[in-house]
Fold each of these.
Amino acid sequence: MQLKTLKALLPVEAVQRLADWRRQHPIWSLLIVAVAARLLAVGARFVIGTDEGLFLTLGRSLASGLGYTGDGRTVQIDFPPGFSLFAALVYALGGWPELPSQLNVLLFGSLIAAPVYWLGRHLATEQTGFRAGLFVALLPALALAQGNFEAVAEPLYSLLFYAGWALLWRGLTRREAASFLLAGGALGVAHLVRWEALVLAFLAAGLIVAGLRRAAPVPATAFLAGLAVCAVPYALFLYTHTGSVLSPKTQITQWHAAALDASGNDMFAYEKAYTAYEAYLANPRHPLPVPALPLSGLLQRYARNLVRQAWLWLTSVSLLTPLWVIPVLTGVIGLPRRRALFLLAPLVTLAVFPLSVVDPRYLLPALPALMLLAACGWNLLDEYLPVLRVEIAGRARRWPLAALLVGLTLVVYALADVAGPFLFPRPTEYRTAGIALRGLVPEEAHIMARKRQVPFYAGVAWEWLPYGTLDDVLRYAAAHGARYLVVDGTTTPDLRPQLAPLLDPTSAPANLTPVYDSISEPRVIVYEIVS
């Protein structure tokens, strides 16, 4: 009995038992790995991002009965409400301010591994599915939920999208009407989180028609019915407030891009044009004034942004593209054409984004599809790469080179996951300032700041900090009912240079009274505007 117990404690036996459990419970294995990889991301130096602050404020407004508004005055029609509805539910149940974002990364981000595993298993092999699931569980950009710094709703969107995509493949291969209905529903909910899901939903409908042909009417109808459950109410919401069923997000990004185009090299172009955006939100039935560009100008913008996007793919340390680009290309070549096209379809929006601007967050939803292709590529490389003879602890074993390279890739991913929370910039000073202001400023107060974190953590409304002189800022504050002003050593010198003298409280005029000063660098100072 003692010999058996000792044998069971040997590392070889433990590894074998772990491998057996993995084979019996592949999805649970992936979820455990994914959750473990994300624990640091939601714990160490955690702080919400700028846009994230708006989504969470919208959720807080919904939970408190104010409606879908970020400032208590205007309806926020340019951002889909899906993530904010989730945040509202969390807040209504008593969750703390950061909990929706933490669940977004930890729970939704981890669950993406499940549909990815299912797709890999049914498009190729079980090993393909498990490898793809591990890539999704550990890839730094997905584990840390960031292309460079912040993501907002991308984990939730990706989970919904790939669940819908897996259901779509199930429907195409098994001809089950229920699968098409659920696929449409999943993509409909995804559309409530990010607008491009609707584009991919119509692409999915085209795949149904092309794949099933004469048998397509019933499945296509079921799919569109599931899609309509969420898409139609949202379209009615948009039509009520804007007079159009189309999301205004595309128009706003084009306006943003046009402002940059018209400014030449003016880095403050967007800052100066923000008042036009505010006017549009106040009266969204009047379109934003988007300057018309000749076709040559549009093509130049597209080419420029395409190069920037490609450069971002190659240089972002959280994407680690050099480790997986060759397997992805191998997977595209090695998979049967129909299956390769099915995995390439989610990348369609990557060709659309450069029409306006480039943002690292836009790349995140494409990564699970690329990891699936990478897993397929590694499986193909298994057949062509040599087998090495490796001696470990006096035992000689034969290891496929492809398996060793996959293991090395996963080790690099895991090391980056551990280092990432400490390497990427985290404006924790904003969090500290906001929490310190609780109780110091009234709950109904409005705080002007270039970034949203300080007002969000303080539990009060955020107001835009206009680009201009201090007199311009004070006039804007009076017109918008703002009583407080935030300057900080990170953004003020670059984005609001006219206000940089306020980083020294002794230089502030008499009508600005400091109510918070971090003193330590990077400095954050909050002034009360007194009359």
Note: The first helix runs from residue 2 to 9.
Amino acid sequence: MIPRIIHQMWRDEQVPARFQAWQAGWRSRHPDWDYRFWTDAALEDFVAERFPALLRIYHRYPEGIMRADFARYLLLEHFGGVYADLDAECLASFEPLTGEARLVLAPEPPSHAALPRVRQRLLPWIACNAVMASPAGHDFWPFLRRLLLQNHRARSVLDATGPFILTQALLDYPRQDAIRLLPPECVSPRDREGRPVGAAPPLAQHHWAGTWIQRGRRERRFKRYRRRLRAVWKLLRQERSMSLRRATRGLDRALLARRAPADGSVAILVPLRDAAATLPALFAAIEGLEQPAGCLSLAFLEGGSGDDSAALVERWCAGPGRRYAAARLFRETAPYGIAGERWAPENQRVRRGGLARARNLLIRQGLGAADWALWIDADVVAFPPDVLTRLLAAGERLATPHCVRQPGGPSFDLNTFVTDWEPPLEEWYRHYRDGLYQPPRGLGRLYLEDLRYLPKVRVDGLGATMLLVDANLHRAGLVFPERPYRHLIETEGLAALAADLGIASYALPQLEILHAENG
């Protein structure tokens, strides 16, 4: 049963004046309940005493709101009762819930679920963690805690500890009969825009104060305008991105709309250079795929290697490769070359433009009549035998797994990303070079390491360490841009171009493949 305890928290004892009336309302409507107010210091002591094994993770959260989210779940697990944010106004007594043996909470208003960042995560609704009630020891909380620990490196509050990860945990929780979802209007009779939500009697109103949201610092207007003018001037002097009309010239729209069968044949396409060190592991992983060999064909494109990559591929194609529908090696006659560091920003226009040309050549030479193209980089060294099965089962025309260097480690392929926020123009232009936008890691972007709790997510950028593509898209003319498109190129440019044609790109954050450590 839900004990008669109300939990609220703030960073210290100095509760802002705008919250004090709402805070008093919880006490006045529950005069016989135990009211417990938790400061940051008190919460740290609670975690240290009751959950000492979690204290290190608790300290590692970079933002106070993450610790507050984590702590509220631990409070309800240990003590039970009702948790309420200070910006939640109590409208009725929670006494009728005290006989409840289930976890009780409500979704946020339906209008919130329609927001782009929610739809991108494919969540059908959003759990409100501002007002929740629970018996002590409910086994949902350890279930949620395991997911939180798996995703504790996520940089977004909503994904690390907030409503998004809470929602996915509720969806995945096996004992759905142990959860009671109230109508949204029970805790949010009005949404964040003030629009009425429904007719059920409300218990509380969350006012969406958003005290945790970090506000950007203000600059003097003249300085901001000067920076923007410099940004515009720099943009005008850079290579212009292709227009959609130019990028889609010759596109076969009828073929573009034709979907490949999920059980169709697959062409595995592998561009490579100087890959002798990783090819044996890649061959072994391909041979371990659970698909019948007769459904798979393989095409390798080698260009400009200084090692014996080509000889290794030729021997494999003549040996184990013979059991596949086809196994061929092609040579790139005009391989691109760069001077200096491979990852240096000044080299990316040439490097990735060359990669795009190589991929497009491989489409023409190696795709054949296959229904699907599975792109694999030559320095991918391990993947599950069912990786292709799971990518096909996702039911999407563009799908990629999560490429890491160590199981459970940070994302390696940063070309697969979700746009979290757009930097202002004056910040954006600092990372714009040779027609390409090249932001540092994490600037306005989330990677699959931040979204591990999700089985599938719609992404704004694609990498091709491994990438499944409906072959009809390639045959229709949707190929890898060799020139910037929307300031992106190659695999990222492909995702942007596909999106503008109404074709979404998806990733499976929980499906991991391994990249070589030194690639």
Note: Residues 214-219 have pLDDT under 50 and may be disordered.
Amino acid sequence: MKNVTKRNTKPLNSQQHGEAEKETPALNIKHGKAKPERNRRSAKKFMNLMLSLCGPKGRGGGSFGRTHFVRNPTQFSQRVVMKARVVKMNAKGVKNLREHLAYIQRDGVDQDGGKPKAFDHDHDELPSKHIAEFADNCSGDRHTFRFILSPENGTSLNMKEYVREVMTQAETDLKTELKWTAVVHYNTDNTHAHILIRGKDDAGNDLVISPDYISHGFRNRAAEIATQNLGLRTEHEIKQGIARDAIKNRLTPLDREILWACDVNGFYAVPPITADPDQNFKRAVHIRRLQHLESLGLAEERLSGFWHIYNGAEKVLKEMGERNDIIKTMHKRMKGLDRMPECIVHRTDDPHISKTEINGMVLTKGLENELYDSKFIIVQADDGKAHYFPMSYFSERPGFEVEEGSLVTIKGKEYQPTFASDKNIVRFATEGFPGNDGKRFGGQGIYDPAAHLEYVSGKLPEGVDPSRYVDQHIMRVEKFVSQKLATRLEDGTYRIEPGTAQKIAEIETAAQKKGPRRHYEIDAVSIAPLDRQIHSSGPTYLDKLIAERGYTEEAQRAILTPVQKKTRDALLRRVEELKKRGLLRIIPGENGEPNKYLFIKGAIEKMEEEFKAALYKRLESKYGKPVDLKEGESFKGALGAVERHPEGPYAIIHDKVNNKFTAIEMKGGMSKMTGTDRLIKITKDRERRFLAPPKYTMKVDQPKRIERKQDRGRDL
């Protein structure tokens, strides 16, 4: 065994330290001009040493230069805000990418208020074909990167060239060519660029960028390049920016400085005046900020020079900033209105959310956060006020998404998650569900959505759509896949891993401790805007109003809300249209009473027939021979597409073998099967009965399961 000398790890005292200094040879630095070749070798050797010391996880280490060291900008450098997000390219990620590309290229964000042009390193204007190809290529990546680049003085920069310089420098840092596209927006106070980067390097491997470079390096490089183009900020510009922060109704860097200097009880002591003018300026700005916080009710001067910052001030300032941004967004989106209505902001953390119910017309929809694709909706309610609602994944039904001009009812929902769907999935896979004639659905550790749909058909309460019910279970089992609790198999089924039931119980316990979940649910009263319903050939929401109470000629009411006025005007024009088509009968008023209009017998059915005939004629060149189902008839095919019309969304069922198709009113859960080869059987149980739509039964074919030896007899 070798003798190992143990290193002395005790700290040196002052005498030992002095002796150590004597023994250590001095570092003599010789001034002078070194040879260029030697300079390059020395610099390279030094950088290699630094990279090896930092290691793969340090700031500056890592293989292939993916964590390139970037120095922090100085105080006088140009300021740049950078936001970043890494998006996984699963089925949801691909859909979000296409929606994101469409949104950042929307009208109204270019310099002239038009539609912006996407660009890359070589092209100033990318055609829509190239954008579609970029999205298709991204769909095969493991992930993609999204960046929002916002220089403080972006209006003074050529943003396209600036973005190209930043991306060229990023390619140098990462030592790979990047495939990217970008769009510049001028519709906000700060000009900014949206940059999308593919998740592949030039060798076709997954592009990996260190979190440090994403968080700091990219922004610092952007600040360096902005400084090279615009020069350093002057001291006057810096002080002006700081002084503006003192009176803002949001969380600012000044607040962070003050909170950091507070003691544990939240008291801040104003420093004394010194001979340093910079320190005196900082002191004056802090006092000005504290006085503004006092006006907001967030701080109080207890003694001269001693301020108390109230607990929760930071949270309140953040919420104030968010609310101000929301109000600004609402005013910008409602710019064309005759009168700016009062703005009400609704939040999901409202403890009384379940009491919220608003009826009105959609003014606009958009992205609350352009990086994360979180959406919002603004509704002009019957009370004349404009209401802002944040939207979640569960706010709208797939296929029934509302648009500007739609009539909606928005309700607040509060619920405690019970994880009933999760438990059903595990029970279906492990025990199975008993069916008729001794048949058993499920078991053997496999969750089969088609078998589950077959089992629940006819067993659910009236009004519950079996397809939508099973779709909710599919969403949950997809979550299992992301959590490694299930495996997606080639035949569309899922293998549930052992221990999933215990994991669900743990998650449920943790969720109950967090409290109830809250979101806003949008119920589309009329999906199509009113002006598109006036000349529609098929039955509409306006026809429903006429059918329910008739249309009475009456004098204009003195007071109408904007929504009531638009509905009344559209209804009047719809009545004139129906009169021309001979679908209304008149009941003359007596004793000076106004005339009343009612539908003739079979009017709704006649309108539907006319609409279906026009729809079939338009689609037959694409899908083949149309089949109009009668009561008791069935049709089998795949869901080809979803057509949106003023009458509502229609599902196109396509029989590719016989080149035939039919169109039926969209049902919940159908959108999930769009574009798939799963065959569905549609049976028409009942014809339309006046306002009541036709009734259909949908059954999804169960595919033949691919047996695997490792799945047989598996005991979970």
Note: Confidence is low (pLDDT under 50) at residues 1-38, 51-68, 703-716.
